[in-house]
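Our consortium's second objective concerns turning raw sequence data into structural hypotheses that experimental partners can test. To show how far this objective has progressed, the report includes one record in full. It was chosen at random from the queue rather than selected for favorable results. The single chain below, 412 residues long, was entered without modification.
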Amino acid sequence: MYIYGFFTTLLFILILPFYYLVRVMQGKSFGWKEKLGFFDSPDLGKKIIMFHGVSVGEIIALENLIKKTKEIFPEYKIVITTGTKTGQDIAHKKYENIADYITYFPFDFPYCVRSFLDKVNPSVILIAETELWPTFAFYSNKKNIPLYIINGRISDSTYKSYRLLTPFFRSVLKNYTGIFTQSEEDKNKLIKIGASPDKTEVMKNLKFDIKKSNEVVDLSQGDNRVIIAGSTHKGEDEIIINTFAGLKKEFNDIKLILAPRHLNRMEHIIDLINKTGLSYGLRSKHADFSDKDIIILDTMGELSKMYSVCDFAFIGGSFNKTGGHNPLEAIVYNKPVISGPSIHNFRDIYWLLTRSNAGKIVKTPEELKEYMKKLLSDNNFYDSTYRDCKAIFNNQQGALDFVINKLSEILK
């Protein structure tokens, strides 16, 4: 590992000026001081739990665990690191009043890692998903800092690449105190590339540790079937409204809840609906389905509970480059979801959902309409989606308690 560190450091020094210039030109020159280890030592004391999530999806997945950790271990300071600016922005937004220090993960070179670990000096480190940083793992082990992978997952393509370098990854993975995966399949893959069977366990998926709302929603929908389009972005409102208008001609009993991600598009959305001739109302004005075809959800904080009244949901942010939003807000109510092709924020979740009928990824608006039509016309198929949602959700719960129990053993 010392030889690896020497050559990677030499390479880093040689390419650093060019890499920095490229990042500046791309508008991505963020967090350099922190990543290089040039930051002031935070006054955190000696009891510190560190969480790392590289970007948005991982930081969101850690939310319930971080909150529970703060509750169970109040005497410990919470440090959160990310690798991207978007992850950093979400971390500050979600954990400003929970975390004691939020910063960037260091570059994986000896000086940067040593500087970070010396200044932060965590008692235990939990890294979400499967981020393998050889130098960071080596120096964490050298300093006797327990280092864990949690919510671990390895894609088929990554697994194939890593298998070619099994001896190297075996030397890296031995520095981890424990590796906890989302599935038995992920566990077996990691063992095959060098993880110790004694250190590797299945914990299931943290993202499934969400709760239903206890609030009853009454929109006077009666026997009508309700579709939700949740967190739609620019360009998706047109797709959803036109798709719904087309389906309405064939299925007169359907209603739509349209929940735009940003309410500054309201005037445009209303204009789109008016062109279809369908009736609409605003949630803020207490509209319901007794006399409306579409309800626009123009209130804050109500979307998650609205999934309880739908029959199925389209998850927005997926027909652009946003990367999608959380499909589990619908799945928790056993309601199947449909998404466009951009789902990188929740790729692991869709990998599970699309192995059954719980979730579907469509590539075009035409595919979206055809799949919605299938859900509306094929009762047996729709019933199978309900069962699959319930089975997947039940099978994946328990990850949060697993990690909390492990932390209790480490920190006792």
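The partners drew two points from this record. The mean pLDDT is 92. The longest helix spans residues 2-25. Both points have been shared with the crystallography group to help prioritize constructs.
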